[in-house]
């Protein structure tokens, strides 16, 4: 049996025996193409505007849909009148709870539900000749609402007499989620210092460049969906199931995509509404959410109200860690837990956790780049710094003192752990010794400080993931996998893996992803699992291809395989009768027009924890007169297994740091508590970092391939990139001014 994590979920599976016969890459193996910082193979398509994103898909006779969303935080539909909207020229159809099929959604509601639980909940969907007409029709639908009392704050929602979203109360599943190891009370008694601290984090919205969008088309009882999604197979199974279609009748396609960050891991209501309308009018339908709808309705990182308690001995040994967290699920079930950092970062025998996920009248939370970990580390790593200070230790020394040599939840070894190396590399690069010995004592109003934060994430990926490889007679190759490229470089890294094995230029390789009809299964692109899951499948397919070619070449050249040399896509027979044969020629001689192999991702090793590790060091400047924090520099040092493409890896880390900086300093979904409505659902009032806010970034990778993990030894980087940034900045701010930032975002008012 093996275990792995996808997002916050633990997946258990029966291990399968690996079928590959070839030698796994050694950890420090010198590779020619893998690891190189090649630019994206699709770069030209993107910068020239020829890349077709879902947003750009235009079909003949395509109609456009738009959604009427509830303007109130909590309401019930008393009556709905669509007659005026229907009379508008160009309106083709309208769906409401009165005429739509009752399709269950979120386990607690329906596709169209007369009970509306947040501003943005779906009331009706109109299809028309143009998006403009559809939106106009949406505005002319008359709805009489019964206004219900609402609550938009998780802590208020837990109080007695708070407005209820569900009959069984506001606490999700009716009880907190709990974890315990050792004996917390005993651990606290053994401690010389006990600290209790509270940290709060805000709700932020994903805001990928491309908003959510689907184009749907029926051919008889077959449905094709172009979708901006992180998981084509997950959309396929959900849509097929709610529409009562066999999965084989549903095809989901996604070629190019402008990001997701977790907001596009699941099938959207909009996709199903468009499919119902398209069937009704017998035409293809496009439905695109605008940024306001995206900010309201399709996900956010939940807030957290965290109370931490820790016990430490005089020598710096952690004896106890406790966390109680409260987070807003929003109006429908969603995970808000943030305890994994506390559970898994340090060797601490006595740990106790209680996590409360609370319904409020606001958009539902979703997985958002390192769900729970960003919130959790913001609190934990500041507490760790304070504990170090209390026992008179350097924060880095304190972390090394409590270093977990084994995975603390299961007491099993890691496949690899090079966090110590990352700490030391990063500390040297930032100049750790430059940090203030006494915070806040620099002269003048502008003070600088240096802080750090560790990170841990899963990121090992796992099965199932498959890739088909086709060798054409001209020597060109196609890789076909049911994975997806969110913009992060999957097309390029997979071509690199095949190019490495087959020793042919990447230009000869085409990578086809994101099409459920042509590709074998791969999982959703989330949880930093894509590269570690799919790259081994591609390597497997390529090695099988090479093995086939070897035996064919031996037969054709009339020499044993052992006397064949392979280089640059050609076989050479050694000795007097030297001859050569390229793989395209060979395929022709084999009587094949297209030679095909299928590779698979082997199971993760039994009895090991697979994790990524890393640290970020931040250098900040705090103006104590204006309250402004400027992040001058971030040094990132990581253990991520093998690097597939250094440029793409650096891109991911840059993106994570900048997104983490936005979370730390600027971003916040603001709901007016008096009216229960979102006041900054646009990129004007919701501040994300600009180029001027971006610090100097320095990146170090201390790892080589993880030989125990897979045949490529690769781990994921997407989520590790963002996790430590906010805590590193907060600790640097403390080092500058001697004041703890206990709530996010760290706006000037909190500094002053
Ligand atoms: Mo997930 S939050 O899309 O990695």
From TrEMBL:
<dbReference type="GO" id="GO:0016491">
    <property type="term" value="F:oxidoreductase activity"/>
</dbReference>
<keyword id="KW-0560">Oxidoreductase</keyword>
<feature type="domain" description="Aldehyde oxidase/xanthine dehydrogenase a/b hammerhead">
    <location>
        <begin position="48"/>
        <end position="149"/>
    </location>
</feature>
<dbReference type="InterPro" id="IPR000674">
    <property type="entry name" value="Ald_Oxase/Xan_DH_a/b"/>
</dbReference>
<dbReference type="InterPro" id="IPR008274">
    <property type="entry name" value="AldOxase/xan_DH_MoCoBD1"/>
</dbReference>
<dbReference type="InterPro" id="IPR037165">
    <property type="entry name" value="AldOxase/xan_DH_Mopterin-bd_sf"/>
</dbReference>
<dbReference type="Pfam" id="PF02738">
    <property type="entry name" value="MoCoBD_1"/>
</dbReference>
<dbReference type="InterPro" id="IPR046867">
    <property type="entry name" value="AldOxase/xan_DH_MoCoBD2"/>
</dbReference>
<dbReference type="Pfam" id="PF01315">
    <property type="entry name" value="Ald_Xan_dh_C"/>
</dbReference>
<dbReference type="InterPro" id="IPR036856">
    <property type="entry name" value="Ald_Oxase/Xan_DH_a/b_sf"/>
</dbReference>
<dbReference type="GO" id="GO:0005506">
    <property type="term" value="F:iron ion binding"/>
</dbReference>
<dbReference type="Pfam" id="PF20256">
    <property type="entry name" value="MoCoBD_2"/>
</dbReference>
<keyword id="KW-0500">Molybdenum</keyword>
<protein>
    <submittedName>
        <fullName>Aldehyde oxidase and xanthine dehydrogenase molybdopterin binding</fullName>
    </submittedName>
</protein>
<dbReference type="InterPro" id="IPR016208">
    <property type="entry name" value="Ald_Oxase/xanthine_DH-like"/>
</dbReference>
């Amino acid at each position: 049996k093996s275990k792995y994590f996808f997002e916050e979920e633990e997946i258990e599976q029966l291990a399968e025996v690996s079928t590959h016969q070839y030698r796994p890459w050694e950890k420090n193996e010198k590779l020619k193409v893998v690891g190189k910082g090649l630019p994206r193979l699709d770069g030209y398509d993107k910068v020239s505007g020829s890349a077709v994103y879902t947003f750009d898909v235009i079909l003949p006779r395509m109609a456009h849909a738009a959604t009427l969303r509830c303007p109130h935080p909590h309401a019930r539909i008393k009556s709905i009148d669509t007659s005026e909207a229907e009379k508008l020229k160009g309106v083709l159809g309208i769906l409401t709870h009165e005429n739509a099929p009752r399709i269950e959604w979120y386990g607690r509601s329906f596709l169209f539900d007369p009970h509306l639980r947040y501003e943005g909940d779906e009331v009706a969907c109109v299809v028309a000749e143009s998006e403009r007409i559809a939106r106009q029709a949406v505005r002319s639908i008359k709805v009489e609402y019964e206004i219900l009392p609402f609550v938009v704050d998780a802590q208020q929602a837990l109080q007695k007499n708070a407005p209820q979203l569900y009959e069984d109360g506001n606490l999700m599943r009716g009880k907190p989620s709990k974890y315990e190891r050792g004996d917390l009370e005993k651990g606290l008694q053994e401690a010389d210092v006990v600290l209790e601290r509270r940290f709060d984090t805000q709700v932020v919205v994903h805001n990928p460049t491309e908003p959510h969008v689907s184009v749907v088309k029926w051919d008889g009882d077959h449905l094709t969906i172009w979708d901006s999604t992180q998981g084509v197979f997950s959309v396929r199974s959900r849509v097929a199931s709610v529409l009562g279609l066999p999965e084989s009748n549903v095809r989901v396609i996604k070629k190019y995509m402008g990001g997701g960050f977790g907001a596009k891991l699941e099938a959207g209501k909009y996709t199903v509404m468009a499919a119902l309308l398209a069937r009704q009018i017998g035409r293809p339908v496009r439905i695109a959410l605008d940024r306001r709808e995206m900010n309201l309705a399709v996900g956010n990182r939940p807030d957290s109200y965290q109370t931490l308690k820790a016990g430490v001995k005089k020598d710096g040994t952690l004896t106890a860690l406790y966390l109680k967290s409260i987070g807003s699920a929003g109006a429908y079930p969603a995970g808000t837990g943030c305890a994994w950092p506390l559970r898994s970062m340090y060797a601490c025998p006595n740990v106790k956790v209680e996590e409360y996920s609370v319904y409020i009248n606001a958009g539902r939370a979703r997985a958002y780049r390192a769900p729970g970990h960003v919130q959790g580390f913001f609190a934990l790593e500041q507490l760790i710094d304070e504990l170090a200070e209390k026992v008179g230790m350097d924060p880095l020394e304190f972390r090394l003192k409590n270093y977990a040599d084994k995975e603390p939840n299961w007491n099993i070894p890691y496949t690899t752990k090079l966090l110590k190396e990352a700490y030391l590399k990063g500390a040297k690069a930032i100049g750790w010794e430059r940090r203030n010995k006494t915070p806040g004592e620099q002269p003048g109003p502008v003070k600088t400080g240096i802080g750090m934060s560790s990170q841990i994430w899963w990121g090992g990926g796992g099965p199932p993931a498959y890739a088909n490889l086709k060798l054409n007679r001209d020597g060109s190759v196609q890789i076909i996998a049911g994975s997806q490229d969110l913009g992060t470089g999957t097309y390029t890294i997979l071509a690199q893996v095949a190019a490495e094995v087959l020793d042919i230029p990447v230009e000869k390789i085409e990578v086809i992803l994101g099409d459920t009809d042509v590709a074998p299964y791969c999982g959703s692109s989330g949880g930093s699992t894509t590269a570690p899951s799919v790259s081994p499948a591609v390597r497997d397919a390529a090695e099988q291809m090479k093995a086939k070619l070897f035996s064919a070449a031996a037969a054709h050249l009339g020499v044993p395989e052992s006397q064949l040399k392979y280089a640059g896509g050609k076989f050479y027979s050694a000795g007097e009768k030297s001859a050569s044969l390229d793989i395209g020629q060979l395929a022709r001689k084999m009587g094949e027009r297209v030679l095909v192999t299928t590779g698979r991702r082997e199971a993760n090793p039994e009895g090991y924890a697979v994790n990524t590790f890393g640290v970020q060091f931040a250098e900040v400047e705090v103006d104590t007169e204006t309250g402004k924090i400027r992040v001058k520099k971030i040094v990132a040092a990581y253990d991520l297994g093998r690097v597939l493409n250094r440029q793409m890896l650096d891109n991911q880390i840059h993106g994570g740091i900048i997104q983490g900086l936005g979370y730390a300093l600027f971003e916040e979904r603001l709901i007016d508590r008096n009216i229960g409505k979102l006041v900054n659902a646009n990129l004007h009032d919701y501040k994300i970092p600009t180029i001027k806010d971006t610090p100097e970034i320095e990146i170090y990778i201390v790892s080589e391939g993880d030989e125990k993990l897979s045949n490529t030894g690769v781990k994921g980087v997407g989520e590790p990139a963002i996790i430590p940034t906010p805590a590193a900045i907060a600790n640097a701010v403390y080092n500058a001014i001697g004041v703890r930032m206990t709530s996010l975002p760290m706006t000037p008012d909190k500094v002053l």
